[in-house]
What we know:
The chain is an alpha+beta fold and about 675 residues long. The strands form 8 sheets. The protein has an 18-stranded mixed β-sheet that branches. The chain has a 3-stranded antiparallel β-sheet with strand order 24-25-26, with no helix packed on it. Strands 27-28-29 form a 3-stranded antiparallel β-sheet. The chain starts with a helix and ends with a helix.
Amino acid sequence: MRKYIYLLTSLFLCQSNLPAAEAAAVTSSHIRIKSPGNPAVAYTLKKNTNGDLTAQEELPLIIRHEVSETSSATRIKVSITAKETVCYNYEELYPLPSVSHTDCQFYMPGFWYRRNLRSPKEAPSFYTSDSWQVREDRLSTPLTGIYNEINGDYYTVLRLEKSRDETLTTHPSGEVILSGKTSLGFTGFRNMSGNSALVFGFPYHEAPKTYIRKLSLIPPVQAFEKLEEGESRELVWEIRKGNAPDYSAFVADVWKYSFDAFNPQEVKTPYDKALAKRILSNFFTESYVDRYDLNYFSGVHMRTDDCESTASIEVGFVGRVLLNAFNALEYGEETNNAGLVKKAHAIFDSYLTYGFTPAGFFREFVNYERKEEQTIFSIRRQSEGAFAILNYLDYEKKKGRKHPEWETKIRRLLNNFIRLQGADGSFPRKFDDHSTVSDASGGSTPSATLPLTMAYRYFKDKSYLESARQTADYLEKELISKADYFSSTLDANCEDKEASLYASTAMYYLSMVTQGKEREHYIDLCKQAAYFCLSWYYTWDVPFAQGQMLGDVGFLSRGWGNVSVENNHIDVFIFEFATVLDWLAKERKEPRFSAFSSVIKTSMLQLMPVEGHWFDIGKAGYYPEVVQHTNWDYGRNGKGFYNDIFAPGWTVASLWQMLSPDRVAGFFSRE
């Protein structure tokens, strides 16, 4: 840590030919050289008349530093050539001219938003430090942005190299000499005597801590690449300045820039919609459990290696048992599979009889083996259960089959919702069967908007629409306008992707039941939240090492979304969002939305487990969940693998919804 502080203070400024607007700005460079078995030695660099970076002492490297300008950015190219075998770590800083650190908010896509103050101190946040730098594969785009709230100016640095080398390392902390080649550098921000600075370099160097697993920060790691005599490494970064009226607009502009820079393309897979559903449907066939009062598709707390069914059942969140029952019913009738239809009806019938509490809420989670049942409920799980049943009821009504008992149950549940709703339009995150609130946080509110708008259309009851409108008022005021999307996922209480995804989808649903200026306003809010949600999705393909399963099978991360600040892995949480993007592309003439939707819809099918291509999953169609793409894990296996326990219930439901793009429009088109 003492050496790290030294690098903050011992800077020699190298003049860069930056754009005129940035004439006052300069970069500073330094390098650390490590010989095996000895601490690394840091050298401050300056540029000589030949354009090389040199130190006061003779270095075993030739470092060429070139700066060029484009119409909108400054490009920095660094070429490092070894005069003899050497292990090095290169770092560059870009101090922002007269930009106070306290005036700024920060951004590392898919990992850091504002100051990460929604996260606990055990995760990366300003609670631990106001200066952070991380390895690039943590980020959905290898970029750091600093936004000045006083004047709206922002600065970003983007790594442009697109090679995909990676190597296994021996230690998670300390100075580590890499055994092979990596393409991973680092990026971040730093407080330099009260002013902000961008920091970037190669290979990776995480500080002041490295995030190793959920709520576990450990001492920093600094990697050293070995170059043999005559060997070279070329590094390219782009620094860009812009202006945005607020943090949301800043994130939207940077996402568009990131998308254009990487131009992600569709991933070729053999799966069209029909084949993908056929494979996924095996989950319905093999996971069915009927030995308890509630029948279900077993989709939580199971092992990836055998996918054996468990005694746990969950209505929403990771289980999604009712939505999968609807999916199985619809697919079973479409393919004349009487077995699936029978299973689906048995699940619905069991929930109608045994699936509700005395007050009329869903029994959210039950573990029959341990004889445990959760008594603290969540607006998210309850909403996801209601969402599934309303889809089921609408489908059945269109088939000429009526379920008045189900309609009574759902109306009672939704009336419970309305009683829980706050004066500001929000819903509490957690509560009990007596509607006593234990977590009043409103971040999960948009999950309730979906069933409320659906209930308005299904029951033609304006009270549900009024409640949904109130949620929109809250979302606009507290989440969307503030770019503060949090606490939607239930196993973390922090900044997360799902809050922004739900917010965007909520506005999509409201646009289906409104007209005129109100509808246009909801579309605008949908678009604003969509950009923020997109910031969590990977525009590039992170590298994996040989021996890491995901790398060995050629997995590409583009189109997959990071989960949250606490849970630093990627997954296939998408549901209707790809459909929302396609719809927004037409409504607001933004072709990037539909282009990236195509990336998502192809990329997310890559790990389909089938005969001959199991991807370390025990059964066909049991789609993986915790895809560990960076140096972080839940406690098992690490980068390039999954955690050993997973929940395919929600992954199957998510992909199935993605593969059913006409479902939402079909529901709301009913007369």
